[in-house]
Amino acid sequence: MSTPGPRNAITDVDGVSVGHQHRIGDGWATGTTVVLAAGGAVGGVDARGGAPGTRETDLLAPENMVQRAHAVCLSGGSAYGLAAADGVMRWLSEQDSGFPVGVEPHEVVPIVPGAVIFDLPRSEWGNRPDAGFGYAACEVASVAVTQGCVGAGAGAKVGSLKGGLGTASVTVGEHTVGALAVVNAHGEAVDVSTGRPWTADHELAGEFGVRWPDRPGDVGDGGAGPGDAAGGASLNTTIGVVATDAALSKAECRRLAMSAQDGLARAVRPAHSMFDGDTVFALATGARELPEASGPFGVPQRAAVLDGLCAAAATSFARAIVHGVLAASSVGSLRAYGDVWPEARRATP
Hints:
alpha+beta, L-amino peptidase D-ALA esterase/amidase, about 20% helix, two-stranded antiparallel ribbon, about 350 residues
């Protein structure tokens, strides 16, 4: 049976740390979150939305040379926000952390895949993350992960509610799987006719001790801005990272990321629309090997354990999404879950 780790965060995977940098107020509502992997981790990625904004995803393909990523950069600012990863690269290079390309310790190229959300309407035009955001997020990275309107979740929006950043973890057997999600979906994460999260009966059963509301919520206009509409639909994206301490190949990491997308589909309706850029990265630190022997009926034990890790990835990512929604705070006219349904206890950072 799987259970949450001690922090119930992606940092329950040893070697993983998280840092945020954001600005809220005075025309700003955006930010950057960095997931650092000490010493690097085997990586994978799965993108299913129709409008992704990404960098370095081709490097994570199983057939390509580079095996390990050193960080994942998640940012607001749409395509402009991809610049935040430049700051992550600079910080990592100062630590001599990266893919070796020379004989000296500092001769490295940090591998920093990244993805962005569309949050431009929540800030004045021109206010978006740059390289300084990525560098600053690395400077404060730790195993304590704040949730809600922080980092890349500062300007997030999910359906008609304020979105945010959430995290969760699952221990399954000897392994830990953790997830971090920036919830900025075109679809809703809760049934607005009852206030109940779509995943409440499954991933969240008993976790909060919450008596979920059973009434419609007045969510107003969803805080739509002038850049929010495209043929009547908002432009959004849910992005995130799923990490494990298992020793996986790049192909197995991609399978883990694919499974995390299943968790996204459980938590958001609709998911993977043409107006979303839903992208999930996977990191495997390799601290714990998978068994290689065959089990009953000749089924490889490795495949069976991997299957359990994939199930945990879906569960942890779904829970991370709901954590992000519950921990969010209202920003301007965009109301948070806790203000629409105050009778339900919100997750606290």
